[in-house]
Design brief:
This protein is about 35% helix and about 25% strand. By secondary structure, it is α+β, with helices and mostly antiparallel strands. The strands form three sheets. Strands 8, 9, 10, 11, 12 and 13 form a six-stranded antiparallel β-sheet that branches.
Length: about 300
């Protein structure tokens, strides 16, 4: 249990999710100071060369999203410096960031995932194995940056979507079968020695899918908390989220995203090891649904820093 007082809230970075991270960082810093347990200072970390700035702090709250800030590089540096930090360690962070590697682990653990292929330039293989309704996404990154949903795909549409994915993030491109249905998210919280799922949230964008704009524009999306699901479906998804958290070796908290097909089958899409904490973010909404305020929630996460 973290017992320090002086906390650095790291945010910013130099990636596609910089603006979101800055908003998360401010929300976390304000909430920590409002909670009056910690003395928090907001730090806009532009590069890993600036990491020494945390040496005079007792611990770090990570409010970084994407690339090196969320994918294990920052976590590894803090581990070497022996400075306590929130959330998952370097290995779990790297696995969570890489959708291909994490999906392989989920499949081995019997956590249902959409059928998918790593892009290798063969459109005919995609059509034969996944059909014509597909999702093209970077293997790494978050906030739906670089993701394209294609209905009735053609080689031309696929190549265009692959280009978008590659322009936004380096690395491999994942092609998945599109799962029609409802979008559900599950926040997992380690609290008082137990790993449990907070109330599920159904995400209902007013237009299109839950892309970057719909995620971070107030009023663009409706959030149903708790999601209107039968008890058995809620139980299955909650258990899947907890299992995914454990399979990746996550710590503190995480958020798993799901598609719920019309036949009632739930598919996990990814696990976010450092989920957003802005005014429109999902994890604070889930915590609020069980009476846990933002200051209380981030303070409890900070206490779990290691």
């Amino acid at each position: 249990m973290f017992n320090g007082k002086k906390v650095a809230v790291l945010c910013g970075g130099d990636g596609k999710e910089r603006e979101v991270s800055l908003r998360s960082g401010k929300a976390v810093c304000d909430a920590l100071n409002e909670g009056k347990i910690f003395n928090a200072e907001l730090i806009d970390l532009h590069s890993m060369k600036e990491i020494d700035c945390v040496k005079n702090f007792d611990g770090v709250f990570i409010a970084m999203h994407g690339e090196w800030g969320e994918g294990g590089i920052l976590q590894e540096a803090l581990e070497k410096m022996k400075i306590p930090f929130t959330g998952s360690g370097s290995t779990a962070s790297a696995l969570g960031m890489n959708k291909i590697k994490s999906c392989e682990l989920f499949k081995r653990a019997d956590i249902k995932i959409p059928d998918g292929l790593v892009w290798c330039g063969n459109c005919e293989e995609i059509f034969s194995k996944l059909g014509r309704d597909i999702v093209v996404k970077p293997s790494e990154g978050g906030s739906t940056v670089g993701v394209t949903i294609i209905k009735d795909a053609t080689p031309e549409k696929i190549l265009e979507a692959v280009k978008v994915a590659e322009e936004n993030y380096a690395g491999e491109v994942l092609i998945e079968k599109y799962i029609a249905g409802r979008e559900i998210t599950a926040a997992v919280w380690e609290h008082e020695g137990k790993i449990k799922a907070l109330p599920l949230i159904e995400i209902v964008p007013h237009h299109g899918f839950y892309d970057y704009t719909n995620k971070y524009t107030k009023g663009a999306t409706e959030y149903l908390v708790p999601a209107k699901l039968d008890n058995e479906t809620s139980k299955i998804i909650s258990e899947m989220a907890v299992k995914a958290h454990e399979v990746l070796g996550c710590s503190g908290y995480s958020r798993s995203d799901f598609r719920l097909a019309p036949d009632g089958t739930a598919y996990i899409l990814e696990v976010n090891t450092a989920p957003g904490m802005t005014a429109t973010s999902l994890v604070p909404k889930a915590a609020s649904a069980v009476g846990v305020s933002m200051p209380m929630f981030v303070s409890e996460i900070m206490k779990m820093a290691r």
